[in-house]
Design a protein that fits this description.
GO terms for molecular function: antiporter activity. It is found in: Membrane. With about 400 residues, the chain is mainly alpha-helical. It contains 19 helices and no strands. The longest helix has about 35 residues.
């Protein structure tokens, strides 16, 4: 069949399954993943493996939009407004999860360093949509919610930066498996990260200039898409992080022209079918045969990541002298994981040699389904215990 037919099947299956599961109060992303799993090679085989591989360009486009949107959260004035305490909590809850997964994978389970670094970096990402859905549905109010909202807004940005550092170190280790100096392990990744940020900064300046010249929404949308695709394409061509580069485009625009919301809202109109396809394709690529092989690693990842999130959030809140309810319950609200983590796992699959790339992808996709099923329920329970959801 032609690729356009497969894209049609993916969209219909994703939307239909999400609609059915929404009746059970499950997040849309869970429906997309399950739809992809059902129509993919692991079950019905409607979408063959060769087709899913060819559709990777849709995933790369989706990641460009996701990173660009996350970059908009890096407005310097907004960061000053939320305060140092919230920033500290965000950094600690993200990086504690990263370090704990790294340590357990390398020193307890004896996994390769490159594999462990990449999987650990993905642990930082949190899915704000599922958490915010609970907050809005139950009209939760209080210090935990007030802290939670800015934390989840900034969390993925920290995750993308951690992933950028970890993947460049992992690539350096893989390419120089025969032996490499500590200086190169530090210097090469640093240069690659700086190069990605410079490309994004330059493209961000260009976008800021062009967005002021264009009046119509359609023209602006075309320019933003062209800039993002060019940024991602250049970064990928030189083996740099397209995520960091596209995030920098958004960060540059929001700081040089803070009142320019059009360049972000224009993209939001275009992205829904791209994101539905992205998540459903991720489900198509979920290999159940690999899932059996990585069962223990997956369970450990799921548990250790949650421990890291809770410990990091507690330490950040304790150091910053937040109320006891924030110290006790904030970590429970940071469990869901979806969009950015799925995107990072796709990059990991292309970064690490076989079988490790596919293993990271499978672990993260399976964990996402579990987190998205259990995360909202745990968030609701934590907010009830914190006294921020009033039960009738």
């Amino acid at each position: 069949m032609h690729m356009l037919f497969y894209i049609s099947v993916i969209l219909f299956a994703g939307m239909g399954t999400a609609k059915i599961l929404s009746k059970f109060k499950l997040p849309n992303v869970t429906g997309y993943l399950i739809a992809g799993l059902i129509i993919g090679p692991s079950l019905l085989g409607i979408i063959p493996k060769e087709a899913s591989d060819k559709l990777s360009i849709i995933s790369e486009a989706a990641l460009s939009f996701i990173a660009y949107s996350i970059g908009s959260e890096f407005n310097i004035e907004n960061l000053k407004r939320v305060g140092k305490g919230v920033i500290l909590i965000t950094v600690l809850e993200a990086l504690t999860a990263v370090f704990l997964v790294d340590i357990v994978m390398i020193f307890v389970l004896g996994q390769p360093v490159a594999f462990s670094l990449v999987l650990g970096a993905i642990a930082a990402a949190t899915a704000p949509a599922a958490t915010l859905m609970v907050v809005r549905q139950y009209k939760a109010k209080g210090p935990v919610v007030d802290t939670l909202l800015p934390v989840v807004a900034m969390d993925d940005a920290v995750g993308i930066m951690a992933f950028g550092v970890s993947t460049t170190i992992a690539q350096t280790l893989v390419k120089n498996s025969g032996g490499i100096s500590i200086a190169k392990i530090i210097l090469i990744p640093l240069l690659e990260i700086v190069a990605a940020l410079v490309i994004g900064f330059g493209m961000g300046i260009f976008l800021t200039y062009l967005s002021k010249k264009v009046k119509g929404e359609d023209g602006l949308l075309s320019i933003v898409i062209a800039i993002l695709f060019a940024t991602a394409g250049i970064a990928i061509r030189f083996n740099l992080s397209s995520l960091l580069a596209c995030m920098m485009v958004g960060a540059t625009l929001t700081n040089l022209d803070p009142n320019n919301k059009r360049a972000f809202t224009a993209v939001e109109r275009f992205t829904p079918p791209v994101l539905i396809s992205f998540f459903t394709i991720a489900g198509v690529q979920l290999d159940l045969s690999i899932l059996k092989e990585v069962g223990l690693l997956g369970i450990v990842y799921i548990v250790v990541r949650v421990v890291g999130k809770m410990l990091g959030a507690y330490l950040g809140a304790k150091i910053s002298d937040f109320p006891d309810t924030v110290q006790k319950y904030l970590g429970f609200t940071l469990i869901p994981q979806a969009g950015v983590a799925i995107g990072l796992s796709m990059i990991a699959q292309n970064t690490l040699p076989s079988p490790y790339g596919a293993q990271v992808r499978t672990i993260v996709l399976a964990a996402t389904v579990i987190y998205e099923l259990l995360g909202p329920m745990i968030t609701k329970t934590a907010l009830i215990k914190a006294g921020e959801i009033k039960l009738d």
